[in-house]
Amino acid sequence: MIIDFIIVGSGIAGLRAAIALAAAGRVLVLTKADPGESNTGYAQGGIAAALGPGDSPALHAADTVRAGDGLCDEPAVHVLVTEGARYVRELVDWGTRFDRDANGELAFGREAAHSVRRVLHAGDATGREIGRVLWERASALGSVDTINHALVIDLIVEDGAVRGVTYVDRAGDRHEVRARAVLLATGGAGQLFRETTNPSVATGDGIALAYRAGARLADLEFVQFHPTALNKPGAPRFLISEALRGEGARLVNERGEAFMTRVHPGGDLAPRDVVARREAREMASTGAPVYLTLAHLDAAFVTTRFPTIAEMCRRVGLDLARDRIPVGPAAHYIMGGVDTDDWGRTSMPGLFAAGEAACTGVHGANRLASNSLLEGLVFGARAAAAMQEALAAAALKGDRVGAGGLGLGAGNAASKRDAQPPVPSPKSPEEVRDLMWRSVGLFRTREGLEHAVAALDAAGDSMLVTPARLVARAALRREESRGAHYREDFPQRDDGRWKKHFVDTR
Ligand SMILES: Cc1cc2nc3c(=O)[nH]c(=O)nc-3n(C[C@H](O)[C@H](O)[C@H](O)COP(=O)(O)OP(=O)(O)OC[C@H]3O[C@@H](n4cnc5c(N)ncnc54)[C@H](O)[C@@H]3O)c2cc1C
After folding, report:
1. Please, what is the average pLDDT of the chain?
2. Which of 28, 38, 191 to mutate to test the pocket of ligand 1 (most atoms within 8 A of CB)?
3. What is the 46 CA–ligand 1 centroid distance (Å)?
4. Distance 149 CA to ligand 1 centre (A)
5. Nearest CA to 346 among 328, 325, 335, 360?
6. DSSP-derived secondary structure letter, 221
7. Which of 27, 41, 161, 450 has the fewest CB atoms below 10 angstroms from its CB?
8. What's this model's pTM, rounded to 2 decimal places?
9. DSSP E strands: which ranges in 360-462?
10. What domains can you pick out in the chain, each with its CATH number?
11. Closest ligand 1 atom to Cα of 131
């Protein structure tokens, strides 16, 4: 079979790219599990687009840049918010069933740090609905083939360009496929951490594949921790969407006090990292869980607006509309990834990246809620346009600096370690995740990060350890607090030294 384009991943970015490429040649979508098993399939709250009353792309851009805490790539944000509205309208035209109000107009939800109601939703299973539409459309195109349960383990590199991939099928057999261009749309990396909202496929494979091939990675220290994952012993850590707080749900401590109103003007809808850290401190100081409560809202509204979450709660013995729901922080989204320009081009000819696997710079140091589905949609389509052109690599953006030149980070840790006893390495994926949660999680310190880097250095290379080590090293390097990256030993933002992006290569 002659393939023109390979897409790794069947989430929103991969599928939108496949649809755009179908007219230009044969497309092969490889995905390592069932096609719907992706972060996209679990996305609840919705997709942001400047389509509602009182909204504009400029307002959406301003909110995005504010959330990004000084590190958004503003030209990329401009692309996101202006083209985003058009691509979301296209989703509606293709049959996506977003919720509508009593007049049949699109209904817009509210989420943290959005200055207006801007979030289109399909109940509380927006990603599943968008995935359904994209999957049906891509599957109907004769030039798109898909292979499920195909785990891509390597990129084929020749003369400095990416020429294809190696994958392992369900039976364990290895295959090589070559193509004119390869798109990494492998999604997130939440599974690098013990507590996460992400499904099991989100192991940061795109980061590992790109790194091993020699491509640049950027901003890996920025990992968003969501404050409201279910926190019930023995139950899965499923997400309780921020959209609930957008509709009036409150965060309370054991005594029923709304603790966020004491610490931030945004209250329960303060930025996610602020809420997550406050919550962790509240739990540590009281020794008791914190809860989300919707008991003051109309019960019928709660269960109609959030049927999936209500059902998930029911399965673990909780009534979403009446009970206090124990919640806690969990790794949710990675802002960094494979460094790309605004067309999904990476530093290697033949290799492209889009969606959560990529770092376009639109999220800066912290992602605005509901902007990631939008990013996958817009930059998936744009990467597809670039893949049809010549084999060109992206130029390094002006504000991104190579980490090697600074002599920072892992180098310092390594030299200090020479005189010390070896640090035991994690022996299993569970130990890697536990180490990442404890030392590279919500609260970071040099000591904890050096320990994590040393332990992960000693663990060799694997698809899980490589991205974990890169995240830990990036977090050690950045000696300030900004966005989702919080260093207890450097609690302030420091624009003088750190208002820049760092890129890492092998
Ligand atoms: C619980 C939850 C709720 C969320 N809610 C929202 C929301 O309301 N709004 C919003 O904007 N964002 C939300 N997000 C984030 C958003 O869902 C993701 O950022 C986005 O869907 C990522 O899309 P993607 O196409 O980049 O990757 P994904 O949708 O994660 O798809 C990645 C694909 O790559 C495949 N893959 C990975 N590695 C390999 C490999 N080695 N070989 C082959 N295939 C591979 C996976 O199997 C999968 O098919 C949420 C995330 C979670 C986890």
Report:
1. 93
2. 38
3. 13
4. 16
5. 360
6. T
7. 161
8. 0.95
9. 400-402
10. 5-150+335-387 (3.50.50.60), 228-330 (3.90.700.10), 403-504 (1.20.58.100)
11. 29
